[in-house]
Amino acid sequence: MTSGAHAAVLAQEAIEALNIQSAGIYVDCTFGRGGHSRLILEQLGKGGRLVALDRDPEAVAAGRGVNDPRFTILHCAFSSAGEALRSNGVSQVHGVLLDLGVSSPQLDDARRGFSFRYDAPLDMRMDPGQGISAAQWLATAGEADIREVIRNHGEERFAKQIAAAIVAARARGPIDTTRQLAAIVAEAVPTREPRQDPATRTFQALRIHINQELEELSVVLPQCVSLLRPGGRLVVISFHSLEDRIVKRFLRSQAQADHLPARLPVRARDLPQPCLRLIGRARRAGAAEVAANPRARSAVMRVAERTTAAMP
Ligand SMILES: C[S@@+](CC[C@H](N)C(=O)[O-])C[C@H]1O[C@@H](n2cnc3c(N)ncnc32)[C@H](O)[C@@H]1O
To answer: What is the pLDDT of residues 137-166, one digit of tens each?
Structure first.
């Protein structure tokens, strides 16, 4: 479908989990380079429809190259999915896919500033037309905020030392490039984890913060539930424990009937019914996929189905 090197993770598993109806309407909230979208289109019949979203203009440009009347690509953050779909005449869908995080083309393009492997401007925005770059944020944020972001989003135990080193370095001159930041972090971190660059956790933390990734996820999940028609499937693939925790808690909370004290004179069928049903357990990529695509190692896929119950 499109060029670019992104190997779709848990691809067959995600498509099976969507349980595609030939004439259904599906939403791929994270088009990337269209690996999952291509498989959805393969399963859809002539009357089916796929709407894809991405906040990255380069992903959207790749999507515009898809020549298929059943396919539409929209440029927006998925936190606006509900509104974007409604403005395109879509109010109910048969399935939604979220394949979270960054794509390989984003990581591999030095100019995007996501990776410490290249020397490049420290940007890290998935949509460079929105918000501020990582360099701009590091130039002005308070030391305590920098520490909290690195600790909470990077699960970095040396967050305090790294934040102090960043603040000391920026007093000498701006931190504009990935290499500068990687060097500051490497000096501040006293120990080394096997096979991991000392800047890995800090770069992850900044990327999550700059793109408001956890907030985006918390906002889109309830929108997905209201978009789904009964029997429709929600499939979410996450890549780190912070995302997966949000997904797991949300799905569980929507898949549970409200708990009332046991002795109240209320029959189970009179209680508000849950609006989601969990489908299977969390799934991980198999050894063969991980061997072929190391990015798959941390992937976790969760699936739920919309019931007929109204949303609380
Ligand atoms: C892991 S890649 C998806 C890869 C895709 N499934 C494929 O097979 O090519 C994630 C994509 O989602 C996009 N993305 C991440 N967060 C987003 C958000 N909040 N709103 C819209 N797009 C987002 C990124 O720009 C990236 O292109």
So the answer is: 999 999 999 999 999 999 999 999 999 999
102 CA from centroid of ligand 1 (Å)? 6
> Over the stretch 230-282, which tens digit does the pLDDT of each residue have?
999 999 999 999 999 999 999 999 999 766 666 777 777 777 889 999 999 99
Q: What are phi and psi of 243, to 5 degrees?
A: -65, -50
Q: 103, 237, 297: which to mutate for ligand 1, most atoms within 8 A of CB?
A: 103
Q: Where are the beta strands (DSSP E) in 67-135?
A: 71-75, 93-99
Residue owning tokens 């500068």: 180
pLDDT at 2 > cutoff 60: no
Query: Ligand 1: residues within 6 Å at CB?
Result: 6, 8, 30, 32-36, 53-56, 59, 77-78, 99, 101-103, 126, 216
Q: CA 284, 285, 291: angle at the middle one, nearest 5? A: 145
Q: For position 243, what pLDDT does the model report? A: 97
Q: What are phi and psi of 277, to 5 degrees?
A: -125, 130
d(CA 138, CA 188): 16
Please give the single-letter amino acid code of residue 40. Answer: I
Q: Is the pLDDT of residue 1 over 50?
A: no
pTM summary value? 0.95
- Residue 195 to residue 184: CA distance in whole angstroms: 19
Indicate which atom in ligand 1 lies nearest the CA of residue 220.
19
CA atoms of 58 and 32, how far apart (whole Å):
9
